């Protein structure tokens, strides 16, 4: 398995897609039920293959990621060969970017000495999708990139 198995909730959401996937493997409902009982290891392999296919599709389309922690916000834009990053760090320890108040504080203090901002670029040294998946495993999530674009526009002007 290249990535991670989807959760039960994710499988439930992708029920129709999973049924189609099984159909491409020439596995109907009766055979799937039989596999789960008589050959659970084969059923597990099918779940893993399907999970990897879904992850591969999602990661291939991933363009922006965000990761929030108490005192940091990491914003990423993913390209084919590298990732651009903007890291915002509060120099005020009491700040909590995980709260509504903390985000309002950021808005009010964005371009003050209370915020340290770093811009970076990292070339993918391994597979692009695996690198993006690693960011997700560390807590990043897919985003529309609005925050990245807003800050990047200000930085570039």
Automatic annotation (TrEMBL):
Question: Lineage from the top down?
Answer: Bacteria, Pseudomonadati, Bacteroidota, Flavobacteriia, Flavobacteriales
Q: Could you tell me which species this protein originates from?
A: Flavobacterium branchiicola
Question: InterPro entries attached here?
Answer: DUF6495 (IPR045470)
What's the domain of life for this entry?
Bacteria
In Swiss-Prot or TrEMBL terms, this protein is called DUF6495 family protein
